[in-house]
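My main concern about presentation is that the manuscript never shows what a single data entry looks like. In essence, backbone conformation is discretised, so a fold becomes a row of integers matching the chain in length. An entry of this sort, consisting of the sequence and the corresponding backbone structure tokens, reads as follows:
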Amino acid sequence: MSRDNYIGGKTLEAAVIGICGGIARYHAIACKKLGIELVYVVDINPAVAKVAKEYNCNFLMDYRELLNKDIDMVIIALPPYLHPKVCSDFLKRDINVFCEKPIAASFKDAQQLANIVHKSNAKFMVGFLWRFHPAIIKLREVIQNGDIGKVYIVNVKDSHPVYGRKDYPDTKWRKEKKYGGGVTLILGIHELDLVPWILSKKPLRVFATGGNLFYGPGSETEDSMRTLMELEGQTSFYLDTNWWSHDESILEFEFIGSKGRAIIENPHLRPLTKDSSGDSLRLFIKGGDKKIIKFSPIDCFVEEIKCFSECVKNRTEPPVTIEDGLQSMQLAETILQSMEKNELISF
């Protein structure tokens, strides 16, 4: 356990809001590993009382009870439509906020949240945790250094066997548009953040297909999305994301440049077992040179909370900003518009 999380001799104190959801649990575990004192867990689900016992902390069923308490940071992991309101309430009181992606269910709501972020003295960070994976970080370095030349083609596949699994809650909000529960906002938004960040290129136009291919009646949201995006410098980015890989999760990145190719296949967000092997980045350089760079297992949830806590302690700006959240929301919303209208849309 780390003992580095102190402000003026006082241990950082945190609350996790939405603790009965799956992702929030990983954030709570990260706090414990980092020596951040988890003071409160919050959820409207009565099961929050049992969860609080697991983490040896207090619980609340209404986040507003936290607003007047002396706490250093809140970690918010709720359905997307709730993020703007809950984040804003804490930011208005200058309480530091870590918000899971996506930051809202619509670009308009995300813009309103951004206005509050800019007025607040608190630190705000978006939870795009793949940015903290060592293979992704190295991939960006390789591309920025020009090791594979000018990148012309990016292919990404991100597929998860979510629905139909007995261990995965079939929550109502994931199937209603107003709640922001479609696969584009929940899953694909990771790559909509990552690829422009890795390349340092702006999107120009996009065409998308997909929709409710597997859910059937009773769902308003898309469970499958395929998009072709043109970025600056004649770069084409193809993304295929869905909830229906049936047997196992698939995540593959391929960047093809004028001098070579870079590939990452099925990286892990956290070690699955004590004996987990790390991930790797494969490079194929023009002329036949091949290289495999291996990385030790890492918990990206720990890394991103560690980063945010250091920003809180040192009063520095987080590396994943509200502007990053806004850009990814704009891309996601434009993709959904293209899918609905069946047309190419320019940014």
Notes: The chain has a mean pLDDT of 92. Residues 322-341 form the longest helix (20 residues).
